[in-house]
Amino acid sequence: MKRLADDIINFFQSQGFVVVSTIDKDGGLHNACKGIVDIKSNGRIYLLDLYKGKTFQNLQSNHHISIAAVDEHKFIGYCLKGKAKIIREEEISPQIIKAWEERITSRLTRRVIRNIHEEKGHPRHPEALLPKPEYLIVMDAEEVIDLTPHHLK
């Protein structure tokens, strides 16, 4: 596993979602938006998935994964590459579920506050309509790619 610097951990923890890329049986890429539940300095990342779709299918046969996020305003971003394993719903610890619920509550609160300030987004509150997680993705980061252009570092 790759040790992650505090600034990278803080960057990913501040993101509302990340783009997760997996590889399908034909070698094609699949991208999906997921929320990070927790990220550790030792390179372990926990993502809960609400649906058993393509990401789930891909990870069953190919454990390679990457997650990427960018902050357009600050013009920075990172991609973490590594391998993942699937933890089935019944094996997910109560602490992980609680952390996910806290993140959803925080997102919902931010959306309500933005709507009060007349920054209208989605007419509903999608976070309140999300289903419970189907499974947990545990990723071990092996490589960190800084997406910030070299001339801006």
Task: Explain what the structure shows.
By secondary structure, the chain is an alpha+beta fold. It has a domain at 6-89 and 133-152: Pnp Oxidase, Chain A, CATH 2.30.110.10. It is 25% helix and 37% strand. A hairpin with a 4-residue loop joins β4 (64-71) and β5. The longest helix is centred in the last third of the chain and has 23 residues, at 94-116. The protein starts with 5 loop residues before the first helix and ends in a 7-residue tail after the last strand.
Instruction: Estimate percent helicity.
Output: 25-40%
Please tally the β strands and state the result. Answer: 6
Q: What's the level 1 CATH class of the domain at 6-89 and 133-152?
A: Mainly Beta
> H/E element string?
HEEEHEEHE
The CATH superfamily label of the domain at 6-89 and 133-152 reads Electron Transport, Fmn-binding Protein, Chain A
Describe the strand arrangement of the main beta sheet, using strand numbers.
1-2-3-6-5-4
Low-pLDDT residue intervals, each spanning 5 or more residues = none
Q: Any idea of the CATH topology of the domain at 6-89 and 133-152?
A: Pnp Oxidase, Chain A
| Secondary structure category | alpha+beta
Distance between the first and last residues' Cα: 25 Å
Mean pLDDT: 86
Residue share in β-strands: 35-45%
Named CATH architecture of the domain at 6-89 and 133-152: Roll
Question: What global shape is seen?
Answer: globular
Specify the oligomeric state.
single chain
Radius of gyration: 16 Å
- Total helical elements: 3
What about the largest sheet? Answer: 6 strands, antiparallel, barrel
